[in-house]
Amino acid sequence: MLYLISATMHNNNMKNITISEQYLDLSQGKIFVRQWRPDNSAHHDPIVLLHDSLGSVDLWRDLPQQLAALLNRPVIAYDRLGFGKSSARTELPSVRFVAEEAELYFPQVCQALNITRFYLFGHSVGGGMALLIAANNAHCKGVISVATQAFVEERTKEGIRVAQKAFQDPMQLERLKKWHGEKAQWVLSAWTDVWLSEDFSDWNLIQEIKHITCPALVIHGEDDEYGSRAFPETIRDNVSGPVQMEVLSNCAHMPHKEQTEQVLALIEAFFA
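RE: above sequence
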């Protein structure tokens, strides 16, 4: 299914952005995709967004439109299998789910959308997926990693335990259903159960990201409740290409929502 929505962005440069939505038929189920395409951007490589553990296309809110207008290039976001408007899953993700997104699902999305060269923007665990894609795909021209976990530290697990306790309130799960429907409980379990499992405790990105040679922008909030600045420092110190690390003050786990203007300015400079 493919349908188009015309939207006009009101910004300094006044760009018309066409928004399209479609479902991709992958062997494992249907993947929901939304694209933002400014006029005259067809020859520019797109930015692909990878969402966090509770995220979805809709939860990016207006960030994709802002990026498309700011950089005059297409922006593409998709709901991972089991999330948002994509097909439901029954079994929880394996402890290799970050690598599996990079190795199994993302290449199918690219093939279905006829994407060759691209940039990546990943938030939280989506940032980890973006880094692994960049490490293993020469067609990645640059990667932006936001609030990304590079390994599992106690601060990560404690933050998840706090969130897990908060979700004992039925109203919290109802709010999650707004974005994931009846898949909400699966989405929550896919996050908390996997990240808190003993089998996942040794997970890290360190060896894989040594293969990243494209430019990387690493953004982290100083007050991130799910990880210390050891995460962006680990990424900075282990990628092989040019890298810029920015730790934002008065900022927690959602830099693109909490410090939007600063994050957009960093991204604009990164592309320039």
